[in-house]
């Protein structure tokens, strides 16, 4: 039996989906039943919860207040349930992780596959987001933990582990630059370049480096997607600038070469395992964090050597 009343469950679904019809499809409940519960709730509270618009339903100020508290009650109930399971010695549940696109390949999928074998009762749900959105997603309680690039200081944000990855030029293995052990950023003036664009985390670092070096790199192409930059490099359009983390798999398979940029004023890209310090984590989440912390100490995720 659901702990929350039908009204609150229906209300949260309508608020989330923006219409009774879409909430009906999500809950698999008749739209008329949902509408009736919403109307009865509004009558009981003595105030409307939604504005009825031609394009759908929009929360009123009262509705916004109820929605915020309703989501918090739902999270608190979930946390309580997993704590009860912890007390019973169970190791199951869902763990939500926010990650940037750079981690959709490589060590993270391998780690999740291994955990599926060792902890089959844990369901791990990964949310691939722009890096700029990940920190807020963690702080607002939408996920249990996050792998974040270049985290900024925020109240409640706790970094459990971190690792630095150098930035460098990326090219085909048969390119003349691939023979170098490292290179200055000024090398970019001699070749067609594929430059990173916002919201990629390394765009800001490259922008600062151009200013500090008094260089204005002419881009043959640019992209806000890591995979597209690597594809353009493979097509021979130019050299890319990425982090060692972005090309770890391709360098291992000798598909691409990575040449670290040797400028001392270029900060590396930091990958951090973060949690919300104020949040009580389930046993399942703590297990996942423990495995991730081991991976951060593993040499398989160390910065790549020059090729």
Automatic annotation (TrEMBL):
The keyword Transmembrane helix does not apply. Keywords: DNA-binding, Transcription, Transcription regulation. The keyword Signal does not apply. Residues 8-60 form the HTH lysR-type domain. Belongs to the LysR transcriptional regulatory family. This is LysR family transcriptional regulator.
